[in-house]
From TrEMBL, chain A:
Keyword Aminoacyl-tRNA synthetase in annotation: no
One Pfam family named in its UniProt record: SBP_bac_5
Organism of provenance: Krasilnikoviella flava
Biological process annotations from GO: peptide transport
MF GO annotations: peptide transmembrane transporter activity
Entry protein name: Peptide/nickel transport system substrate-binding protein
TrEMBL record, chain B:
Ranges annotated as spanning the membrane: 12-34, 116-139, 151-174, 194-214, 252-273, 298-324
Domain ABC transmembrane type-1: 112-321
Family note: Belongs to the binding-protein-dependent transport system permease family.
Gene Ontology biological-process entries: transmembrane transport
Subcellular location: Cell membrane
Gene3D superfamilies: MetI-like
Organism of derivation: Krasilnikoviella flava
Protein name: Peptide/nickel transport system permease protein
Major subcellular location class: membrane
Membrane topology listed for this record: Multi-pass membrane protein
Pfam families linked to this entry: BPD_transp_1 (PF00528), BPD_transp_1_N (PF19300)
Length: 562, 330
């Protein structure tokens, strides 16, 4: 039995493969209250907030969404738990629809939640545990794939369940009464409180469910409801009167309405926010500021004040295919650690504002992280040492295929890697592929088509589990997994399993740190930089803050000056 | 009777062209190594879930079967998924976008007003400006006016639309603050705002295309002005203005209208770059997003629709041709 009010770990991870990041992320850490005290300090009320995004549409269906808990969907749909972002940059899991973040029993294999009093759908109907169960069940339907799916392999019987539409229910979710919901897992899972902050763990009323329209007309449980949708152009949210601030500690619901302006060009968005005229004073950009406008902002004192750059976030890394000929020798992989020019990579990524140099796998802002460098060298590397290691290993020079997605920024980064390795006498052949093809090359099949690849990763929830397990567990090789190094070490797998099942936060964090070091010694990847994201907002936007994790603003707390 | 048979033959060949276009589009996307189910698989993605997504999207079938389902769907509509959670796509069904979770037909219809507003306004503008400039240049051949018009025309032909669009926004939107920067306002909401938001994209598109028309008109006009019938007209004492507008221009317009019909057909299929730069959700933006998302049903649907527009435009041009030039009808 563990209470998890301050737990912060989890399992998901987000590949930086561009598209995923789109709409969903943003977290703002702005309020100064202690999360344990309930409702946050009242934010300035009123006004119309404009959110400018390049996304062409918003998918409100919780079953098919990959939204982070603190962005778009969080404004309309509550879940069992939510993310509280604090002024010190930390992010913790807090109760949302539930009264706590979960009570574990049966050694962490059973998790029980009780719903709060006073939580209701937009029509005033109280939310029951059956509504939550139904919402989770429908995420298993073949018609509703595409969302965050961590729970599908964790819940008992999940692998064989195909959703509620044929009349079947998932027996590992019990609802003994209208307020109580119990989840039975196949094995202990300490980060379960983070899993139930994902979109599918909201509430969907069965009688209002239509799989073809829920994506545009969801039933609101949060402070806003969808009032108007202009396909491809805008979505307008207005206040949901059935929402009660006193039941919600994660949202401040400052603006009276929120307008998403869709399909915006990133450069134009940045220019509008730099100009800061009219409604744009009440706007922020949901997409990263492009490099050209970043440079422009540096010379504009007014705009610079409204530029918010995250702390170091996602890990950008060079994955070494540990099954490839020659690269199965740890000495060769160590040589690569020294041969890579991280500084050149940083410059190719946009310079210091684009990220800090990385030396390890767990990203900043994740509890339990210990900072160290297993392969100390100058930021530009140590080619001589790399040459020595390669000579020791008896490396027979063969061209290394560096396979990357075909876009200009990635090509520049790949060239930075190529130049760096060349100094140590290594030959690199850059192979570019369309993004989707690249995803298949490195995540499906036998991995025989690449030696090296570039990727980046930000966990789907703030736990070292989310950094380590998806990238380094041997179960994640091929078949859509993101173990791009095809790294397999039985000791590490055992350590990952042990840490995953540990329900004590501190003990788990220590185990993850141990795993990080063990993997680091095998050198399956070269950590390059922890990337930073920059966002612009208008002059009347307040409480626009980015926590250490994730590197996105928290939409749920943004308010507007009168 | 001849005219009817002419139209009938054209209509039949139209159907075959469209069938070929849809088959070709399907074939191209099947040959691509990318798997659209990958994006619909969720994260983490297991092989079983990938298979489920593939089956739901109909990707597990032979591509000829997929194509045939597409063709029949246009007439009978389609249904996806199992009972209780089925998604229907009523006829005329041009496919279903699993990324945007909407029937492609609805998406196209929803975006037509935007693309039509941009395309028609720009087309009128460039036709007027292009032809007028061409006529003036021809009449004032060899003068500074002629040279100025032709230099501007060459600039317009050569300039990348993305650059011109962004420069236009920067100059007229941000610096001079004369027009809205971007966004689309429906005509029904406010006709004034509608036009006000469209002025800049119209001008940008017109600048790019008018150039071709100016050059074409100038060349044709010079040709006409040197011809026998113009000399005859002048000899009869008709004013020069009347010679140019009534006699020469009418002949000049035949090739211009041919080009115009085709250009308009292409433009109605989506003004990709202009829509993107001005953040207007038209067919072009829809197509661009479909490419980015490997949204094959949407790609096929929109491509098919655009092809249909061009084929129809071709037909209309031929008909108008007959009206303008009695010799064709004979």
């Amino acid at each position: 039995m563990t209470r998890n009010t301050t737990r912060r770990r989890s399992v998901g991870a987000v590949s930086a493969a561009a598209a995923l990041a789109l709409v969903l992320t943003a977290c703002g850490a702005n309020d100064k209250d202690d999360s344990a005290t309930g409702s946050p300090a009242a934010a300035q009320q009123g006004g119309t907030l404009h959110i400018l995004t390049s996304a062409p549409s918003i998918n409100w269906d919780p079953a098919t969404s990959q939204n982070l808990a603190i962005t778009t969907l969080g404004l309309v749909e509550r879940r069992l738990t939510a993310w509280q972002t604090n002024s010190d940059g930390s992010t913790e899991v807090v109760p949302d629809l539930a009264t706590d973040t979960g009570t574990a029993s049966d050694d962490g294999k059973t998790w029980t939640y009780t719903l709060k009093d006073g939580v209701a759908f937009e029509d005033g109907t109280p939310i029951t545990s059956q509504d939550v169960k139904y919402s989770v069940e429908r995420s298993f339907a073949p018609e509703l794939t595409g969302g965050l799916s961590y729970h599908k392999s964790l819940l008992t019987g999940g692998d064989d369940y195909a959703g509620p539409y044929d009349g079947k229910t998932l027996d590992s979710i019990e609802t003994p009464d209208d307020k109580t919901i119990v989840f039975h897992l196949d094995s202990a899972y300490g980060d379960w409180p983070w899993i139930v902050s994902m979109p599918a763990f909201g509430a969907v009323p069965e009688d209002k469910d239509d799989v073809s329209t829920y994506t545009t007309t969801p039933v609101a449980t949060g402070p806003y409801k969808v009032a108007d949708t202009q396909e491809g152009t805008s979505v307008t949210l207005e206040r949901n009167d059935a929402w009660d601030q006193s039941t919600d500690e994660a949202r401040t619901a400052g603006p009276d309405s929120v307008v998403f302006e869709l399909g915006q060009d990133e450069s134009v968005v940045a220019q509008r926010l730099i100009a800061d005229a009219g409604d744009d004073q009440n706007a922020f950009g949901a997409t990263f500021v492009p490099a050209a406008q970043l440079a422009q902002v540096q010379n504009d004192a007014n705009a610079k004040e409204r530029l918010v750059t995250s702390g170091p976030g996602a890990l950008a890394y060079l994955a070494i295919n540990t099954e490839a000929e020659g690269l199965d020798d740890v000495k060769v992989r160590e040589a690569l650690q020294y041969a890579v020019d991280k500084q050149a990579f940083q410059v190719a990524s946009g310079g210091a504002i684009a990220g800090d140099l990385a030396t390890m796998l767990i990203t900043p802002g994740i509890p339990g992280r210990e900072e160290y460098d297993l392969y100390p060298a100058e930021p530009s590397g140590d080619p001589d040492k790399a040459k020595d290691l390669l000579a020791d290993a008896g490396w027979k020079d063969r061209p290394l295929r560096l396979v990357v997605p075909d876009d200009a920024p990635t090509r520049a980064k790949a060239e930075a890697i190529e130049q760096g390795l060349k100094r140590a006498g290594l030959t690199v052949k850059i192979v570019t592929q369309p993004a989707e093809v690249w995803t298949q090359t490195v995540t499906q099949g036998d991995g025989s088509k690449y030696d090296l690849t570039l990727s980046s990763w930000q966990p789907d929830f703030p736990s070292a589990n989310g950094n380590i397990q998806p990238l380094f567990a041997s179960s994640q090789i091929g078949d859509g997994g993101y173990n791009l190094s095809r790294y397999s070490n039985a000791d590490v797998d055992a350590l990952i399993e042990q840490a995953t099942q540990e329900t004590d936060t501190d003990a788990a964090a220590a185990l993850w740190a141990q795993a990080d070091r063990a993997i680091g010694l095998d050198a399956p990847v070269v950590p390059l930089i922890y990337t930073k994201n920059s966002f612009l907002h208008g002059s009347k936007v307040q409480n626009f803050e980015i926590p250490d994790f994730p590197a996105y603003p928290n939409y749920l707390k943004v308010s507007l000056a009168p | 009777m001849n005219a009817l048979r002419f139209v009938g033959t054209r209509l039949t060949s139209m159907v075959f062209v469209l069938l070929a276009v849809s088959l070709l589009t399907y074939a191209i996307f099947v040959l691509l190594p990318a798997d659209p189910a990958q994006l619909a698989c969720g994260r983490p993605c297991t092989p079983e879930r990938l298979e489920t997504a593939r089956a739901f999207m109909g990707l597990d079938q032979n591509f000829l079967v997929q194509w045939w389902n597409f063709v029949t769907g246009i007439f009978t509509g389609r249904t996806f998924g199992s009972a209780g959670a089925e998604i229907t796509c009523p006829a005329p069904c041009l496919g279903y976008s699993f990324v945007l979770r909407q029937p492609v037909t609805d998406l196209i219809v929803g975006r037509l007003p935007v693309t039509f507003s941009i395309a028609l306004g720009a087309a009128v503008l460039w036709l007027l400006a292009g032809v007028a400039a061409g006529v003036v240049a021809a009449v004032r051949r060899g003068t500074t006016v002629d040279r100025a018009i032709m230099v501007t025309a060459i600039t317009g032909v050569s300039a990348p639309s993305y650059l011109v669009g962004l420069l236009g926004i920067l100059l007229f939107g941000f610096t001079l603050d004369m027009v809205p920067v971007n966004g689309y306002v429906p005509f029904t909401t406010s006709p004034v705002d509608w036009a006000w938001h469209l002025v800049l994209p119209w001008c940008v598109l017109a600048f790019l295309s008018a150039a071709i028309y100016a050059r074409l008109t100038r060349a044709q006009m010079l040709d006409a002005l040197g011809s026998e019938y113009v000399r005859t007209a002048r000899a009869k004492g008709i004013t020069e203005r009347r010679v140019v507008t009534r006699h020469a221009l009418r002949n000049v317009m035949v090739p211009v209208v041919t080009l115009f019909g085709l250009d308009l057909g292409v433009l109605l299929g989506g003004t990709v770059i202009t829509e993107k730069v001005f953040s207007m959700a038209g067919l072009g933006a829809l197509l661009l997003d479909a490419v980015g998302n490997t949204d094959v049903p949407l790609l096929v649907g929109v491509t098919f629709f655009s092809a249909a527009l061009i084929v129809v435009a071709n037909l209309l041009v031929d008909v108008v041709y007959g009206v303008m030039d009695p010799r064709v009808r004979a």
